[in-house]
């Protein structure tokens, strides 16, 4: 399941990137992204209908970490579409409008602070209640009404996690919209990865292996996507590059990481005189 889902997510991200590149109109962008994401989620759902999880742990991982990555995109583009289609016509009123939408999201995080804390701190104690199908408990807060429609593809909290992910991204979108000058200044400060891609892959896999991002509760694919955004680099086949790194005919396979260590030690020696 995990390999299928990761490949599906990579394909979706590639399609969404093309949609962003081809559309300057946000409404058109959102509409196309919604259609594309819905089709992908349908593929995931059909696969899930015939797939038997090998363990409870695999099922929890799917509904806690994998499925929300897909649903969050649908929530995000739906929210974007609704926000843009209802925005005022004048720039002055638009700024106030976007700030009002920001307050709505902040209210959501306050109302769901326990779920947010549970997910972002990597808690696992209630995973069997939150991310196993047909474990509905009326005493639990069920934000996901759609769970009632298909209990084979929903748990009590996977939609809430998806909404948290979506709203974090939406908050960035609205912050830029409410302060366009800040967005311009931020774009001027953009950093770009200028070393070879293979070095970039070494760094990503090392960070993931050490579990230093989100307490290790982040998929390799998601980490790669975030790093691509930060360093303005496209990396569609990191697994293939990693295989090439593993195949190196040397004792020390991590050339870039070794170089980083050597350079840092040299710099510290210089500083020590």
Automatic annotation (TrEMBL):
<dbReference type="Pfam" id="PF09357">
    <property type="entry name" value="RteC"/>
</dbReference>
<protein>
    <submittedName>
        <fullName>RteC domain-containing protein</fullName>
    </submittedName>
</protein>
<dbReference type="InterPro" id="IPR018534">
    <property type="entry name" value="Tet_reg_excision_RteC"/>
</dbReference>
């Amino acid at each position: 399941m995990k390999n299928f889902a990761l490949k599906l997510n990579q394909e979706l991200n590639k399609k969404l990137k093309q949609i962003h590149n081809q559309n300057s109109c946000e409404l058109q962008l959102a509409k196309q992204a919604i259609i594309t994401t819905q089709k992908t989620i349908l593929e995931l759902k059909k696969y899930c209908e015939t797939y038997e999880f090998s363990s409870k742990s695999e099922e929890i991982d799917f509904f806690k970490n994998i499925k929300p990555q897909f649903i969050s995109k649908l929530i995000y583009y739906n929210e974007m579409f609704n926000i843009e289609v209802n925005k005022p016509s004048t720039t002055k009123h638009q700024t106030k409008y976007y700030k009002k939408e920001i307050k709505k999201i902040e209210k959501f995080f306050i109302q769901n602070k326990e779920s947010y804390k549970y997910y972002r701190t990597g808690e696992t104690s209630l995973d069997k209640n939150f991310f196993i199908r047909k474990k509905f408990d009326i005493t639990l807060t069920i934000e996901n009404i759609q769970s009632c429609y298909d209990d084979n593809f929903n748990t009590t909290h996977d939609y809430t996690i998806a909404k948290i992910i979506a709203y974090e991204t939406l908050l960035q979108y609205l912050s830029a919209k409410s302060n366009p000058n800040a967005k311009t200044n931020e774009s001027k400060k953009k950093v770009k990865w200028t070393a070879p891609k293979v070095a970039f892959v070494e760094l990503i896999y090392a960070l993931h292996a050490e579990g230093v991002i989100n307490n290790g509760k982040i998929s390799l694919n998601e980490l790669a996507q975030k790093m691509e955004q930060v360093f303005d680099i496209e990396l569609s086949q990191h697994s293939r590059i990693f295989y090439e790194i593993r195949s190196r005919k040397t004792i020390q396979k991590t050339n870039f990481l070794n170089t980083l260590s050597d350079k840092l030690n040299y710099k510290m020696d210089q500083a020590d005189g």
